[in-house]
Design goal:
Layout: H1 2-40, H2 48-72, H3 74-94, H4 98-126, H5 130-161, H6 166-169, H7 171-185, H8 200-218, H9 220-223, H10 228-248, H11 264-294, H12 299-328, H13 331-349, H14 357-384, H15 392-427, H16 432-461
């Protein structure tokens, strides 16, 4: 029995390593963005594609990845996902053009989606006892949050000491190790599915719709917001989204069963997740640019500036968040956390061109770390609150998909808003650094509005069941 338990925890460690790769990749890239922009001559708006190419394929194929794991076996899909992610990381690290970097980031997102989708299923299969499963999920959450802290520091060190290419190449040895260990340690599992139908059309239409919408938004400043190109692309995106919803209402095994959205808390939590992700991804993206391009921080200094927020988020994932939920239920920490994040973003709106770390950066980072740490688990719990046990995996997938899609669309909108504001001020004779800073301010303000709106929705619309009510 002890040996069996030992093997399960070894297998769990492999899954955590795979997750660590994905988390590292997200935060490492944010620190390297200004260097990538300079080296590959990205415009301020098009730089968002380095993030969005990953987010869109990750979010678009997360549900399909879980379905493929059920049909063909989670271990096989985990290996395919890690291999794709590792290979794409190598290509990202060797990329010397915008197009190759963005394309390989999209493949990374596909590999990440497959890996993430089956990781949770594998953990559920490894640990069937509630106390073991709770312990494992706590460690898993800590790896996800703690990986962010490692990522910002490692990203700063690698970009400072070598160049941005190494921020991607660092994934390669980790990926090879995970592949070798997975072959030896992961169990062969496959869900007992009634039929093996794949909703490929659903995955293609929803991902295409979001890709085209983001492309239209990112290029809106250059092409013109009421130009034929922008309007046609947005129309096509809407039509494809309509086609996706039509497909989901008729296909045998839908990627996103629409009847789930009749569940009040699930629908509300997904809207909250979209708004929150829009503000959170914009915070990571724009504050990294503010620190490097306005305050002239080195990449390592940027990494250190993000560290307080990441450490706070890691502390919440190790048990603080669960204790708050047990004590106050899901509504209070969710709403208060999102409100804190909104205030943190508002503080960035007043950050000057000659900002000081202690007075103009640290308070925002602390509030955003507290807000994200408090709200993350309650958002997921709210999504799962009124879902049947057999649908919990699907509900979790929907929440993650909404988060990724909200992040991609929100980042595109806010990065374009920042670029639009900056361009207008430059034409009026404002200095480059003042114009850049004002552009970031406008985006931070809208991000704060998104977070505040999510907090209000959580406070007003979420219904508290007996399971999630405060315990005194």
């Amino acid at each position: 029995m002890t040996e069996s338990l030992s093997n399960r925890w070894l297998a769990f460690t492999v899954l955590c390593l795979g997750t660590l790769m994905e988390v590292l990749d997200t935060t490492i890239v944010n620190v390297a963005l200004p260097s990538i922009r300079t080296d590959l001559h990205f415009s301020e708006a098009s730089l968002a594609w380095v993030i969005n190419a990953y987010l869109l394929t990750f979010g678009g194929f997360l549900l399909l990845g879980g379905r493929l794991g059920d049909i063909f076996g989670q271990k096989k899909l985990f290996l395919i996902g890690i291999t794709l992610f590792t290979t794409a990381s190598l290509v990202c690290g060797l990329a010397h053009s915008q197009q190759l970097l963005i394309l390989s980031r999209a493949v990374q997102g596909l590999g990440g989606a497959i890996t993430a989708a089956v990781s949770l299923s594998l953990i559920m299969n490894l640990f069937t006892k509630p106390e073991e499963r709770t312990k494992a999920m706590g460690y898993f959450g800590f790896i996800a949050a703690g990986g962010g802290s490692i990522g910002v520091l490692l990203g700063g060190f690698l970009t400072n000491s070598f160049d941005w290419h190494w921020n991607f190449l660092v994934n390669v040895p980790i990926g090879i190790t995970v592949i070798i260990l997975s072959l030896k340690l992961l169990p062969n599992t496959r869900a007992d599915v009634v039929h093996r139908h794949l909703d490929v059309a659903g995955a293609i239409t929803v991902t295409s719709s979001l890709l085209i919408a983001v492309y239209a938004i990112v290029n809106g400043n250059q092409a013109g917001w009421i130009s034929t190109q922008t309007l046609v692309l947005l129309t096509i995106a809407v039509v494809l989204m309509g086609a996706f919803l039509w497909i989901e209402s008729r296909v045998r095994a839908p990627l996103m069963p629409l009847n789930l959205f009749k569940l009040h808390n699930l629908a509300t939590a997904n809207v909250i997740g979209i708004l929150w992700a829009a503000s959170m991804f914009a915070w990571f993206f724009l504050s990294a640019l503010y620190l490097q391009l306005v305050l002239h921080y080195s990449p390592l200094q940027v990494g250190l500036a993000f560290l307080p927020a990441n450490l706070i988020m890691a502390a919440f994932s190790l048990g603080l968040s669960a204790k708050l939920v047990i004590r106050f239920g899901i509504k209070v920490p969710l709403s208060l956390g999102l409100l804190m994040a909104a205030v943190g973003l508002l503080l960035f709106v007043r950050a000057p061109v000659n900002g000081n770390f202690l007075t103009d950066v640290l308070p925002s980072m602390v509030l955003l770390g507290l807000g994200a740490g408090m709200a993350f688990n309650p958002v997921l719990l709210a999504a799962m609150n009124d879902v049947k046990p057999q649908e919990s995996g699907l509900a979790s997938g929907l929440a993650n998909t909404s988060f990724m899609m909200g992040g991609a669309l929100g980042l595109a909108i806010l990065a374009s808003l920042a670029a639009f504001t900056t361009q207008g001020l430059l034409l009026n004779g404002t200095s480059q650094i003042e114009a850049l800073n004002s552009g970031y301010h406008s985006a931070f303000l809208v991000g704060a509005i998104f977070a505040a709106l999510a907090a209000i929705l959580g406070a007003k619309l979420l219904r508290v069941s007996a399971a999630s009510a405060p315990q005194h």
